[in-house]
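User: These chains co-purify. Model them together.
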Amino acid sequence: MVRTTLKHLALGAALMAAATAHAQKADVIHWWTSGGESAAVKELADAYTKAGGTWVDAAVAGADNARAAAINRIAGGNPPTAAQFNTSKQYHDVIAAGQLNDIDAVAAKEGWDKWLPKPIVDSIKVNGHYYAVPVNIHNPSWFWYSKSALQKAGVAGEPKTMDEFFAALDKLKAAGLVPLAFGGQSWQEWITFYSLLLDVGGKDAYLKFFKDHDVASVNAEPMRRTLAALKKLHGYVDAGSPGRNWNDATAMVISGKAGFQIMGDWAKGEFGAAKQTAGKEFGCFAGFGPSAPYMVAGDVFVFPKTSAKAVIEAQHKLASVFTSPATQVAFNNKKGSIPVRTDIDSSQMDICAQAGVQAMKDPARQIANPDMLMTPDMVGAVQDVITKFWNGNQSVDDAVKALQGAVKG
Amino acid sequence: MSSPTTGRRSRVTPARVGLYALLISSAAFFLLPLYVMLATSLKPMEEIRLGQLFALPLHVTIEPWRQAWASACTGLECRGIQVGFWNSVKIAVPSTIASIFFGALNGYALSFWRVRWAGALFGVLMFGAFVPYQVMMYPLVRSLAAVDLFGTLSGIVLIHTVFGMPVMTLLFRNHYAGVPSELFKAARIDGGGFWRIFFQLMLPMSLPIIAVAVIMQLTNIWNDFLLGLVFAGRENLPMTVQLNNVINTTTGERLYNVNMAATVLTSLLPLAVYLVSGRWFIRGITAGAVKG
Amino acid sequence: MAAQLALLPMAITVLGVYIGTVLWSLRISFSSSKIFPTNDFVGLAQYQRLFNTERWIVSLQHLVVFGVLFIAACLVLGFLLAVFLDQRVRGENALRTVFLYPYAMSFVATGLVWQWMLNPALGIQSTVRSLGLPGFEFDWIVSQDKVIYTLVIAAVWQASGLVMAVLLAGLRGIDEALWNAARIDGVPRWRYTLSVVLPQLGPAFGTAFVLLAVGVVKVYDVVVAMTQGGPGNASEVPAKFIMDNLFNRANVGLASAASTVMLLTVLALLLPWWYGRTVQSRREVRG
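Assistant: Joint model of the three components:
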């Protein structure tokens, strides 16, 4: 009897909630579909629901598929309320085509200029208007290592310089382990290249190449040194690396068969799924030395153009909810990334994330990832050069020439 | 029904043994990947990480299968791939029927009836089979949106019919090219018109090729992902969208055992159709008809 | 006439959909479209860029190698399997399903399985070596020159079942009486197959060939799942180039140009064949 009454009450409440929340229905396209990512999205959806909206999930795995779905729906006159992109230049063409709503109102009200890191602001603010809400900061250039593998090879501790890193690789090789767990896919070779450019070539060379597209810098010493290091690094990966998925490479580190992997902080998800903890079975560092640059990449949501008042309300509510401190902490904990806000408490995060938050506190260390500095087209052209260099017998001179051709645009 | 014209009994001749040997070794080549898929789907992730690809599972578990069907995460929801099953059926059945019908109709009309411009159009249709459908997507999206069919069930059925037309037409036209024209002429003399001959003579004779057509179209439409994602609309998303969400992930963790289980589960329907299609691969209907 | 009415949907599809979109794509290839199609005009700039892109040139070369091997292997294997299955064997249903099931499965998963199986560290090479043949080598998939052959293997595995089905349907339409007559004359079975059955399967082979050719031009899933076009560019194919530029690199103009070049190539190959058939059928009508 009581149960039936409660059921009726619950039904009534749900109906009322639906009636009011229906006005702020948010149809959101994103590509977070694995178990860990789903838990992270749930934080965003729950926060939005608590703020009075209704989240309608339109997940599509594979970033390319999700973006294709979003673009086609915009073209077909049935746009989503919000669509996920990377913090990059990918959506700048959509802005240029006039297909996005701006969220200046939210940005002004919540003072985004005050606590958003500069590389992100540069990416989401076009022609003085804010067109995207950032939700996290991923760093694609972390170094992961298996403590047991390093111990077995007699490597004392974390390498503090590039030379120590190569020395550690040599020790691993001598011990019969795979020094560098690697997945031979174009985007992974790409990550390795720009990580090396940042750590070996240095911040200036990196910016000259990616930001200024400076052709002469390609033939300068820092870049040449980077390319030589990249070639040298190839000798430390195993024969089965071409085509390998990044998770399979992480699995090699997890099982102690390999020593290091250069991969983004999303790798924590694989370690977590294998029940390993940062600092216990595996270690992490994001560059060499206490002032090593920290690469800023991540995800944003854009808001397709619409004049429907209810949808605009929903869009603003999404932007506001996504960047609130509580949501940022909850979401990023599950996602493995770090919050975009520089003013939150990181004590509940794992040690790798804490190191990341610490690094981000110093604006001099923040550096934008290549996607934020180059169009997808140019990124692709450079990627083609790098994958050919990595997989073939090209000389550094030829690679330099090819790279110059790619950035000339 | 296959005519018992020969009294040949299957004796154990060297030729017969050789035949079975060849068939079985071919079957082994075809089955090897399936073995790896099934073995992987029954292993826990710890075993998979060890990388012993061909080893039998040490700890057999059917958890991945349960997960794939009912609890794998596909976005915010974690209800596995079952969510889209009926949508897939709703899309696949009408699309298969429609595309086969038009293919048979076109093939019939092209083979037996003289229409002046038909040959040229058929040539262009064949050429159309080579066009990558991704390039065609943007104009189709705009066209369907203009007639309010974008994001609807009718829209996606129409899209599948259109994309299936070249191959289906080819299939039936070539099949009818092998049918003796005396048959057709006799039916005309008997007073049959266009539609009567089609429904009462040609279609019943085409069972083997209809079987092939069903195999092709059902498989292609059932496994289609991109067209369903773009054109079907949110309420009609097929199973393959969830399958893609389970298997494909850019930076999330990959549970290979669940992925393999999900793939096998999704393919069960086409496989069942293949098994059942045997009754249509029957011999001698066209042949017998000429004599009688 | 009823026939003309019945063919109207086909006519509309051809003219409206296929010709229409091909022409639209051609128009876009003369523009600088990025993520959305735009209407500006840049002449042949996209085509110039296309043929200066090494990745595109090698993709065409790979397509030729892949195409020839794939079509030949599928036709031969499909024919043999169809003939064998036609011999009234026990378990025909089960065997037919075994040969067809690869076609039913999404290549995203099966391609990964092939990648694992052909990976030297993980698959066949390491297993055979551990079974006692330490010098055994089967690392084609990581070799720049031989990776294309691994694609052929996986693609043949997936497609020959369908070729077998098409040819089996054709075989089942051949009159048994012909074999009886040949047997009485003492003609061996294989001779009968080659001189009587094969010619009668002409249309079926034609269908199979076109299906395979379409598959070659559009080959994409197997490449993405197995090698992602690698190592480097060693297994790049045109359809992947087009897709990458269409979505990932937001380069609709370049993708349209590439697609137009592919279609022109197909047209160039189709036209002589089509012309030959028209001439032949005119001759038949007259004579």
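DSSP finds 14 helices and no strands in chain B.
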